[in-house]
Amino acid sequence: MRVVFMGTPEFAVLPLECLIGSKYNVVAVYTPPDRPSGRGRSLRASPVKRVALARGLPVFQPTSLKPNTAVNELAGVSPDVIVVAAYGQLLPAAILSLPRYGCINLHPSLLPHFRGASPVAAAILAGAEFTGVSIMLMDKGMDTGPVLAQAQIPVAAKDTTGSLMAKLSRLASQLLLEVLPSWLRGELSPRPQNEAEASYCPRIAKSDGEIDWQLPVVEIWRRGRAFSPWPGCYTRWRGKQLKIIESLPLLGGGESKPGQVVALMGKEAGFGIGTGEGILGVLRVQMAGRQVVLAADFVRGQPQFIGAQLPSS
What we know:
The chain has 313 residues and is an alpha/beta fold. The protein is 26% helix and 26% strand. The chain has eight helices and 17 strands. Helix 1 runs parallel beside helix 6. The protein is elongated.
């Protein structure tokens, strides 16, 4: 059974390693071209590429899968099935029809909910109590294909996109190893998605991380978790970016105004910030160019921060 794997981020690494470890014949790995990263803007390979090279697998990095050259190149690999995990590109019809067992996608949501580019962050933003993984047979739409199997896990109060993505990667790997043999043996019937329940989530932009203190505290708290590790949630003080690394929502705002920094007596948080409804208790922060510190330590070093008025986005 000749398997082609397509993926990019850390979420896709464990599924790839599980396929290799389970003796599937992974004949090629597709991942995007290396991208500039860091202050020096040097080219950096994707996590999937680094694992593939370490395992001695052939790696292909086309900028697009639409040209005939890309289709012919993939056809030359003769895949029986293509497994996709957060690859970042829609597969054209010419590729979808190549493998005899189709193209299978590992999507980190309970489809049809949260189709699109940022399903894990979207689940946190929506306050979902559960999320999960869907394994679907791909068609020409964005995450619209029929579902082969699903599995779910609870969303913990401290989960960030980073921590939840790691959990979902493990879940996706386990589910893939259960589903793939059954699919190849013809034992599964794909189940169409309910379009009436479908929802989409857009790609997150760096500017989404700037905090609007007029929002309710629960929404700001969820955004802080959803945008961790990227782009982070931040505000500004004295012309510099101040990231809110960890926080918790506190009900009741008292006399504090949205964006006003207040002292918190006998609280777990180092300080609080007023919002449109409630106070955001801040646990850890990071000034631009500095290390992450406890909020209590930050206030001890910057006592004038208490009472400051922070801008809204």
